[in-house]
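Quick one: examine this chain and its backbone structure tokens and tell me how the chain folds. Here goes:
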Amino acid sequence: MLLLAVVQTSVGTAAVPTPEDNALMVRGFTPEPLVADQVERNLIRPFKGNSGKLVAGEHRKFGFEIELAGSGALGVAPAWGPALRACGFAETVTVGEKVEYMPVSEGEPVLTLYGYVDGTLFQMVDAKGTVSFDLTPKGIPVLKFEFLGAYVPPSEVAMPGNVDYSKFVQPLVVGKRNTPTLEIFGHAGCTSAFTVDWANELNWREMINCAGARSPDRKPSGSITMEFPKVTDKDWTEIIRKGETGPLSIVHGVNPGNIVELQMPNIQPAPYTLTDDSGVAMMQMPFSINPALGDDELTIIVR
């Protein structure tokens, strides 16, 4: 398998990705070559049996994961930047210092993706996506993407050569040494699981004179599993009961150029559950990621 992705100059105009410049180093690539509704014909006849179906609203879906790491150099965008931008983030590069990704509510780019599977090429045009982050201790941190886009008939082609993955940096396993900061409401609890779901709403709209992937809203959320603290240290029950909001930040990576930071200034925790982990009480707490002034729920800093 091979996956290529390139940002289009405009909606409706397919781009042509190349293996030298646009190869994505992915894992868990799960293409759905044809996603569509099947409309029953419901014919009336003097005998029993199916009357057949017609396909409507055909499109395509790709799912894949990319390891979370920086670019290896300060102020250089990571290789997963184009995919993140198509999930509703604006990219700002500060040369020699950092790259920031901030959410937008309109104007995000779309992608052309080429998925090669055993000699068959599945193209997807005008693709929009959503992303989630998984930073589980003793595991590789990943971005999990899902994209919807326009259907293009498959074709048989030779697998491209000269595939260049040099822009992808080897990730660091999540843990105390490589993930030096995780604070929620100023509390740094021992954490066994952490996820964030950007939760873009994705759907395919099929109309006369109009068809395409749409992302009309987002409802980002997350979940954290950490040691249950004493009430005198942090009273999560009262925080949730009062509907309080506060900041959450996590920093993964220790070397300049390979540090990724997620900042969420306005999360709202929800009721938690308690479990036992080797005799230690753990709390699994979901939270919503809310805007303050708008388009500021989550900032991703690569530095």
